[in-house]
Design brief:
Layout (H helix, E strand, L loop, with lengths): L1 H13 L2 H17 L9 H17 L1 E9 L10 E8 L2 E13 L4 E16 L4 E11 L8 E2 L4 E9 L2 E5 L5 E6 L7 H12 L2 H7 L1
Antiparallel strand pairs: 1-2, 1-9, 2-3, 3-4, 4-5, 5-6, 5-7, 7-8, 8-9
Length: 207
């Protein structure tokens, strides 16, 4: 009888624990099923992330230079020409600028050429950053076309309604217009056909 009394006491002690164990198991199951809450981003951080994503998407394609302003150079009408294509993380860029150099008794005009291929990204501040893959420039004392030493640089970006404005730390501002995809020009086709007709080697191959 003493053993039965002891068993009854043990069971009585375990009964209150059963609901507690069930509650703990249910709580653990709910915690596993409920996904962790995402931390709220700072509104400023969220804005720049969204802006960087938008700019990256809208950059894709080709752009033609519309305006070039350099505070260190005398302004010349239609002095700059430029073309750039963004695709799959790479940028191909050609830029030529007719500049004026002040000498002792005269002004001298010369053309500055910059061309190259770059990797690009839009960073967390929505700035355009470039890393050179292959580039050449004559913007040096010698004026000779040489490998471009600018391996990495960035621009402040404003991109709206098909217009891309780039500003560098020296205050140079360039405005580009996005180009629609177009067909190969008929005038070029006719010119190539005329060249073919005047090339004996091609005529022999066609025969």
């Amino acid at each position: 009888m003493k053993h039965l009394g002891s068993l009854a006491l043990v069971l009585a002690a375990l009964v209150p624990l059963a609901p507690s164990l069930r509650q703990q198991e249910e709580r653990q199951e709910n915690e596993q099923e409920t996904p962790p809450k995402k931390e709220r981003l700072n509104p400023v951080t969220s804005f720049f992330e969204d802006e960087a994503a938008r700019i990256t998407k809208e950059l894709e394609g080709s752009w033609m230079l519309m305006e070039y302003l350099d505070p260190a150079e005398l302004p010349l009408e239609d002095a700059a020409q430029g073309f750039m294509t963004f695709h799959d993380g790479f940028l191909t860029w050609i830029l030529s600028v007719e500049a004026v150099e002040q000498r002792l008794f005269s002004l001298t005009q010369h053309i500055i050429l910059q061309t190259g291929a770059y990797r690009y990204r839009v960073d967390e501040r929505a700035s355009l950053q470039l890393a050179s893959v292959l580039g050449y420039s004559n913007d040096s004392e010698s004026g000779e076309l040489e490998p471009d030493p600018a391996l990495a640089f960035e621009y402040t970006v404003i991109l709206q309604d098909g217009l891309l404005e780039l500003r560098d730390p020296d205050g140079v501002r360039m405005t580009y217009r996005k180009l629609d995809s177009g067909e190969f020009p008929d005038s070029a086709i006719r010119k190539i056909e005329r060249q073919r007709s005047r090339t004996p080697a091609l005529q022999d191959e066609e025969r």
